[in-house]
Inverse folding.
């Protein structure tokens, strides 16, 4: 029988899990794993910072449904991933970070980068542990994957000592796990569905609010003729321009409805903790995480199940009621009023600068419906999100509730790797560029033509606004200056262009795409706080 080293066993287990790509930054503690990946035909994408590798692994999971994997070296390589792991934890994303670890035979002797890594991840992973035996490495990987995909999904961490990786075992001594986790997402039981349908039959003003959904959401919305609002991974589940898709009137709809179908929604700060929902409304909350049901907002019917599956079940249920047309018209009248206001704001002319709403409109129109767009920053994310037209579920990649800056470039990296023929966009603020902006070097090295665009106001936008409100006489650490970030990308071998005139935004974006290179269009926008008082975020 063949002899296999530990790195081969890890790679074989990853391939059996469906992994075709790992994200890494090379290090001595992981070379055996990388060698195993080469032998198994797993693509190795190397980045400039381990945080980026872990962020990219999260995006890989979100885009493919398969396990995203980052492989990083011991000590600082592992600690560099912590923010990205925390981001995935709060976003409910399954992913695996594999860390190198010092030699077992040097335990507690002060070897290079010796560290007991798993304890660092206790609060931000579903499981964290160390693989102690070479022959059991496939079992460790399967164990980690099973925990990663349980419930909503969560990051997991596994470190592997160098000697466990390099040790060789006879293939006959290795057990390769199979059928070790369910593959069919769980839906609601028939009794729960009956409860929902009976409650719906008494409603005339239903709202659908989805944070997790696929294309079946369109069928359900049309069956109920209900105003539908999406956030997070559900963006794109209802295509841009659909007459039942709301954007600006969510507060009005929730305050006046009599029924809410909430699918994978957190009643957290993003939803004002559920306080805007009509207190008399019936609330049905569906989530894979039972602890999220009834969190901050009382519910009438709670279903612990996969929201995507329950949407599909309801979409094919007979005798669903239709929402009152007068009320639906009222909701979308409010929607149109706010959209008209934004359209008007987008026409405001600012000498030498681009109005943020004009920025968002031009960017949204350029990327259109079929692209994948990673958004990264503060105000620039909320501004751009109003205008994005992406119409495929999961193809708007935002950091989620943890609010991490620096996700954009790694998310775009994963998107372009997974979908090499798609237009992949990266929209970020100038502050966010400073976190993982050097991944443009990765784009250049790997020939990934990501189209980047910065809304550059020269400040930490929403923080400066808040700081000025609280302590107007002493605003510190809030100004960056409008730096030539486009020149950085050009110097790395990409395409860069500066824009200060709103009429040049669209042509510049087209030139960036036509270059065929990783690109960055640096657009000087006005500070939000300096705009007229009727400008609303």
């Amino acid at each position: 029988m063949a002899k296999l080293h530990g790195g081969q066993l890890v790679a074989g287990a990853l391939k059996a899990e469906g992994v075709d790509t790992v994200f890494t930054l090379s290090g001595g503690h992981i070379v055996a794993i990388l060698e195993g990946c080469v032998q198994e035909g797993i693509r190795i994408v190397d980045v400039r910072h381990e945080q980026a590798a872990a962020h990219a692994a999260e995006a890989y999971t979100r885009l493919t449904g398969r396990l995203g994997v980052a492989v990083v070296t011991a000590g600082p390589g592992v600690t560099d991933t912590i923010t990205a792991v925390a981001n995935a934890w709060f976003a409910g994303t399954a992913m695996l970070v594999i860390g190198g670890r010092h030699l077992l035979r040097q335990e507690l002797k002060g070897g290079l980068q010796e560290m007991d890594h798993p304890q660092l991840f206790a609060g931000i992973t579903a499981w964290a542990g160390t693989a102690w035996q070479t022959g059991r490495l496939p079992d460790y990987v399967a164990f980690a994957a099973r925990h990663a995909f349980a419930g909503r999904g969560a990051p997991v961490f596994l470190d592997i000592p160098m000697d466990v990786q390099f040790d060789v075992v006879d293939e006959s001594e290795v057990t390769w796990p199979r059928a070790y986790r369910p593959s069919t997402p769980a839906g609601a039981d028939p009794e729960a569905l009956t409860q929902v349908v009976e409650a719906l039959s008494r409603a005339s003003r239903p709202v659908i609010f989805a944070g997790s959904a696929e294309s079946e959401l369109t069928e359900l919305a049309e069956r109920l003729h209900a105003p539908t609002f999406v956030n997070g991974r559900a963006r794109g589940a209802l295509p841009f321009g659909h007459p039942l898709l709301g954007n600006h009137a969510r507060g009005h709809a929730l305050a006046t409805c009599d029924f809410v179908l909430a699918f994978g929604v957190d009643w957290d700060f993003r939803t004002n903790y559920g306080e805007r929902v009509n207190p008399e409304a019936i609330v049905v909350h569906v989530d894979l995480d039972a602890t999220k049901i009834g969190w901050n907002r009382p519910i009438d019917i709670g279903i612990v199940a996969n929201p995507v599956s329950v949407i599909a079940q309801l979409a094919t249920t007979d005798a669903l009621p239709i929402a009152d047309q007068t009320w639906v018209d009222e909701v979308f009248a409010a929607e149109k009023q706010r959209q008209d206001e934004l359209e008007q704001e987008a026409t405001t002319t600012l000498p030498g600068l681009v109005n943020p709403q004009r920025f968002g409109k031009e960017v949204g129109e350029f990327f259109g419906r079929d692209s994948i767009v990673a958004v990264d920053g503060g105000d620039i994310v909320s501004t751009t999100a109003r205008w994005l037209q992406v119409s495929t579920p999961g193809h708007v990649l935002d950091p989620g509730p943890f609010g991490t800056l620096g996700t954009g470039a790694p998310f775009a990296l994963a998107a372009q790797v997974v979908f090499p023929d798609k237009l992949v966009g990266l929209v970020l603020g100038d502050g966010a560029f400073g976190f993982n902006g050097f991944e443009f070097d990765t784009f250049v090295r790997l020939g990934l033509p990501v189209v980047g665009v910065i809304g550059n106001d020269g400040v930490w936008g929403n923080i400066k606004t808040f700081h000025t409100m609280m302590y107007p006489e002493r605003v510190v650490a809030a100004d960056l200056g409008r730096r030539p970030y486009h020149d950085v990308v050009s110097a790395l071998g990409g395409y860069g262009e500066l824009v200060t005139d709103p009429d040049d935004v669209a042509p510049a974006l087209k030139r960036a795409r036509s270059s065929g290179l990783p690109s960055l269009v640096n657009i000087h926008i006005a500070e939000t706080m300096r705009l007229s008082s009727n400008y609303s975020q």
Residues 325-346 form the longest helix (22 residues). The chain has three domains: 3-173, 190-331, 347-530. The first strand starts at residue 3 and ends at 5. The CA atoms of residues 109 and 245 lie 61 Å apart.
